[in-house]
Amino acid sequence: MGEKTNAHPGAAGRAPAAAHPSAVRNVVLVGHSGSGKTTLVEALALTAGAVNRAGRVEDGATVSDHDAIERRRHRSVQLSLVPVSWDGRKVNLLDTPGYADFVGELRAGLRAADAALFVVSAAQEAESVAATTRAVWEECALVGMPRAIVVTHLDTARTSFEEMTRICADAFGRGDPDAVLPLYLPVPGPEGADGHSPLTGLTGLLTRRISDYSSGERAELPPAPDQEAALGAARDRLIEGIIAESEDESLMDRYLDSGGDGLDRSTLIADLERAVARGAFHPVLAAAPAAGGARQGVGTVELLDLVTRGFPTPLERTPPAVAAPSGEPRTAPACDPEGPLLAEVIRTASDPYAGRISLVRVFSGTLRADDTVHLYGHGLDAAGREPRPCHEAEVRVGALTSPFGRQQHPVDRCVAGDLACVARLGDAETGDTLSPPGDPLLIEPWTTPDPLLPLAVRAHGKGDEDKLSQGLARLVTEDPTLRLEQNPDTRQLVLWCLGEAHQEVALDRLRNHYGVRVDAEPHRVALRETFAGRAAGRGRHVKQSGGHGQFAICEIEVEPLPAGGGIEFVDKVVGGSVPRQFIASVEKGVRAQAARGLASGHPLVDVRVTLLDGKAHAVDSSDAAFQTAGALALREAAADARIQLLEPVCEVAVLVPDDYVGPVMSDLSGRRGRVVGTEQGPDGRTLVRAEAPESEIGRYALDLRSLTHGTGRFDRAHARFEAMPPQLADRVRAEGGRQGEGRPGA
Question: pLDDT per residue over 324-340, tens digit each?
Answer without folding.
Answer: 988 899 999 999 999 99
